[in-house]
Amino acid sequence: MTFILGLTGGIGSGKSAASQWFETQGIQVIDADIVAREIVEKGQPALVQIQKNFGDWVLLENGELNRRALRDYIFKEADARQQLEQITHPAIRTLIIQQLQAATSPYVILVSPLLFETNQHQLTQRTLLIDATEDVQIQRASARDGQNIEQISKIMTAQMPRQQKKVLADDIVLNDGHLEHLYAQLKPLHLQYLAQSELG
To answer: Which one of 40, 146, 151, 193 has the fewest CB atoms closer than 10 angstroms to its CB?
Structure first.
């Protein structure tokens, strides 16, 4: 069985930079965010179910999901978020498992911002948290996405608190400096994961 590493971190922590570095080392990365988009593509069973539950307004004229309208709706309606997650989470999990099983690199990484919140860490043998201070997270996220601080704070509040993630994670890398500093911390971990994957 392939050794699976779960990689997570809050908004603006630098988990994308970390996962891209692992890819340059020849390690396959399964991204839960990409999977979440794939399962609601036109014609997918999860999208059909969303339309059935919420109504035709969730679709654009071309039959694709109206992400913005749905996102605005679930922010206002607490029950709607739960309804949506009951449809999407099992579909996401199924596709993630399929993609993990198809991976051919020495070990494989599951990148997920909600690794612990959605129990996706149960699919992994080890977890790595890319951590950053809240000030750094806000600074990076606002520079990258052009979102205002209020929006970023809302996202951060919806995610599991840093301290809780630090308790749950097996390995922690503090990414508060330059990329070279991040990579220097990832190199020994990569060697460790390679060794663990060889042990099976």
So the answer is: 146
CA distances from 90 to 86, 131, 144, 188 (A): 7, 28, 30, 34
How far from each other are the two terminal CA atoms of the chain, in whole angstroms? 7
The whole-angstrom separation of Cα 181 and Cα 174 is 9
Q: Is the predicted pLDDT of residue 21 greater than 90, yes or no?
A: yes
At 153, is the pLDDT very low, low, confident or very high (cuts 50, 70, 90)?
confident
Q: Nearest-CA neighbor of 74 among 45, 54, 90? A: 54
Of 120, 110, 128, nearest in space to 174 by CA: 128
Q: What is the spatial distance between Cα 83 and Cα 96, in angstroms, rounded to a whole number?
A: 21
The model's pLDDT over 55-67, given as tens digits with 9 standing for 90+, comes to 999 999 999 999 9
Decide: residue 103, CB within 10 A, 0-12 exposed, 13-18 middle, 19+ buried.
middle
Residue 76 parent element (H or E): helix 67-76
Could you tell me if residue 194 is left (phi over 0), alpha (psi between -120 and 50 degrees) or otherwise beta?
Answer: alpha
Residue corresponding to tokens 């993990």? 100
For the CA atoms of the chain, what is the radius of gyration?
A: 18
Query: How many helices (H) and strands (E) are present in the chain, helices listed first?
Result: 9, 5
Q: State how far the Cα of 107 lies from the Cα of 121, in Å rounded to an integer.
A: 15
